[in-house]
Batch of 4 targets.
Target 1
Amino acid sequence: MLSRVADSVHWMSRYVERAENVARFVHVNLNLMLDAPPGVPHQWEPLISISGDDETFAARGVPATRSHVMEFLTFDAGNPNSILASLRAARENARSVREIISSEMWEQLNTAFLFVRDAAHDPRMRSQPQEFYRRVKEAGHLFCGGDRRHPDAQRGVALHPPGADARACRQDLPDS
């Protein structure tokens, strides 16, 4: 039983971290494009390589344009590394340990998932993508630090294996 709970908490936090990281590098690329001089080619294909989804994206048969790459990395249900797929997987893991995590953790994760799912059909996301990605990153931060009444579940989230985000999560927890 403990192994199942630990596994679910671990993967729940990893999926949230993945969604936040994808949002971060898309957001950074959008901001870099704002400062790029005219005529400089847009750098969307490297984002696909960074995510390790070259083959999956190539199977779509579309060029690596801003709209195609953003759709693939953000909303594509067939891409297991997309923000939407990651938050869906995190939510399923959270559902399986609902009695272990706090209501705040569940609400934050559920709210983030519903926000991303609904944004897939909202034209404002396409017109204001910086705000969308900022909110996804913020949701990851709130999830990471949002549980103070259930320290054991939070410790499981905070102590998951490597990553700067994991270290940031545990900055207020005592060393074990």
Target 2
Amino acid sequence: MNARHRRIPISRCRWILILVSTVLVVAGCATLSPDYETPSVNVSAIRALPSDSIAPRFEIELHITNPNRAALNLQGIAYSLKLDGHKILTGVANNLPTIDGYGEGDVTMIATTSLLSSIRFFTDLMNAQRDTIAYELNAKLDLGGLRPNVHVREKGEISLSEQTR
């Protein structure tokens, strides 16, 4: 066999592949901070928009707080709001600002309602006497690149009674 066309044994190729994979995994894990805190996402405003269809549309403003040193270079966000288990609003956005480390910023997105889910929710609300409505806010923040998505979930109750405690 010619010295220029020497074959590398398959087992040696496997070891090289394993070594390269291990180095990449260790390097990827090194970019993740062990003291990374999940950013907080809160609804700061909801405004009704004109709609050409039966389903109403809303402009939702989310306030994002970044409690970490590294900036959040958001590539996209997906958002949903459930009331008493009914998914009422969903929205996405991809033209987002960078949230500086230890900073905060606002993201505005268009959300659409699920008409059938909203009807079921209001039917349930009318049929049962309740003092509170459970809500669940879910947001997925896409940080882009090899960084994992950040999932934020906020749960709570909205009081329907006139008295505040």
Target 3
Amino acid sequence: MEQSAIAESIKSRFPDEVVDIVSHQGQVGVLLKPGKIVAILSWLKDAEEMCMDHLRGLCGVDNSQRETGFPERFEVMYQLYSTELRHGIRLRVLLPEGNAHVDSVVPLWAGADWLERETYDMFGIQFDGHPNMTRVLMPEDWEGYPLLKDYPLRGPVEWQGLVTVKEKAKEFDQYGFYGSESAALAVRSRQEKQRGEEA
């Protein structure tokens, strides 16, 4: 089934949930309200004519610095695919800045677990009902969400964990680890010596 036909089927079945259908460079996207995302994705997964059994991707988007035509700052994007019918669709759930949360789809696709955690970790978007909504990339004590457009490139102080890592690297440097340029040179020198002895 063509993407445009899939999008129209979604709009026909969930008319109050579809904000818009957009097309860009051959890709169709369905913009949705967040309220019934699990119901919509369940239908796309289970309906015989859709059979979207594969969640190809799930990510967050911060639209704060581009003109989108809608007031919501965030999107959660779902890329679905049917391995049986060989068709797919992109769904974009619009979320406001002060209330950026949507229901988890982990019950539908276990693989959404870490994708939702990554989206939370990078954008601060909450996934209601997620079994373990904790950071997955950044340390637990990290402040802020690094992929927000207004996230500072450098904070007023270094993250304390980085300070600890640097101190540990200096401590291990005496053992010839790659913690400094001198250690790397020492390792290269030993490797070259070994090669010379083998020749």
Target 4
Amino acid sequence: MLLNAPQIGTVVRFAVGDYLFRQGQVLRSFHLIRSGVFHSRILRPDGTEILVELFGPGAVVGEGPAFSGAKRGTFVQAVSDAVVSIYTAEEMAECFGRQPEIAVSLIKLLGLKNRMLLNRISSITAPQPIFRVASLLYQLANHSSRQISADDSPGVSLSHEAIASMTALSRVSVTRSMAKLLDCGAIVDARKSHVTVDLAALREVLKSS
């Protein structure tokens, strides 16, 4: 319902590199990604960064701080051209009273977000590095597959360092796991920071892990 309610919120286009928001900002708005992909990063006090998550179409971002007024805990930046709906907390509070089905729609989207988070936690705590890497690539490639033709193979634009950060692995473990996935056909091509995958082959790897 929220995805199909253009009369609510403001639709904005983002180019690669644009920020939805920055860590430390206070904004009374949240975002619904309609197309494209964003990643979130945390800047530590020592200056190092951690890549936390990637968000694709249908993801709701920043809803907690929007309603609580808290500072944003992450940087969220576009890694592809994107279209996003922006909603203010005040606007949505009024809308919930007039159209309770919108509130139900938002709750469902947040439930999906929580399930994805649980899947992510499950993959991070898995003992085998190859399973952690395969699970992450599968989730991200699913985002990409919704935006390409059926004849193309989905790709993921992430460096080995970024994958290591998101899977709690060393870069060496990521490189070894990627080599195994390439050997079994789950990865079709790997060049610098872009990986092309075979979703069916990745599913088989996950089933066997």
